[in-house]
């Protein structure tokens, strides 16, 4: 179970919904009323909203402790893997999606193929039926074709953290030295693939760039792959990136004048802050980086999600007030014990079905030092010291890091740097995926892929940078 929780943390940070994720960790640890795998699989239904219908998909996987790992997808809104708490007793089932302030309660049919019940969210309630489909059987993994470039397993040390990192260096064919980048994942326990729901974001981008003349180092973040340690803060990730750059400066294949960093999400913020330190990279590409303090962005993310599933202004306002009040308590209550007690009480007040044990566990996660650090993180501080060329990219379909409220502040904070390019990518989401209609079809099913336009924009910008 430890591995599942850790990998889910990485995926949720890719969605950047840290507040609700931390609560999820405690929910997963709580015992479920119904044990076993009786609900394993996909449960799909049509949610009737004032503006039409939305398909909702609950995915359930039973865990060894009798609980369920569960998520919610709303494909039409491009919402994926929202955490869901499951309660089941006899033929009664409840799925609670705290992120969007909603829940579904119903009765399981005798044949176990349908649940008939009611979808509820603040100020709105509607009947809904969920229909079961079995989880897909994974095909045996196919051997990967040998790429047209050289790959090398590498290790290096971050002396500040006294940690050894593992990674993969991919080098284009031909004579070097080559322009080179370090790829930095979003905050989370990600290995070098940067995979989110079997979508290897960093691998896809790294492969694309290496095939086109750019060497790439992808590394296992702290706690992932062969790298030790625990989940890193942004400040700690900066030192990890500095260690990676230091290692690459010893490699003869690397063009030292064109050694840069590409980061995704909070990894993009770490890349920018690395450029504000001594021995900066030659350039930075920040993908869907945060432009607001963690406390403000956390509330905004919840609001965006609730709006995306059809909530009205009154519901959104109520949610925003509740989330802001909880964030204020976490930030302003210095005594950890007092903060935990207040947050636990707030969780129970806003979640009628939550028991006291689950509330206390959630409050413990929400008042950790690392989470407080995230809420206090100001991504704009120190950016006036960034002098190297910077490419800022954000997707207009990003529900986690809205480009209007994040890309704009970052651009302004870098305004004294004349080598900054800032672009919004139409219909691209937080994971740099374009519309589903553009995804490749593999074995009869669509597979998400990195936006080709975004990939080429990154490659062209890096290759066209003037040599110092």
Automatic annotation (TrEMBL):
Single annotated GO MF: carboxylic ester hydrolase activity
Swiss-Prot/TrEMBL keywords: Signal
Span of the signal peptide: 1-35
Keyword Signal attributed: yes
Gene3D superfamilies named among the record's database cross-references: alpha/beta hydrolase (3.40.50.1820)
Top-level taxon in the UniProt lineage: Bacteria
Transmembrane segments: none
Domain Serine aminopeptidase S33 per the UniProt entry, residue ranges: 205-406
Keyword check for Signal: yes
Protein name per the record: Serine aminopeptidase S33 domain-containing protein
Source lineage: Bacteria, Pseudomonadati, Bacteroidota, Cytophagia, Cytophagales
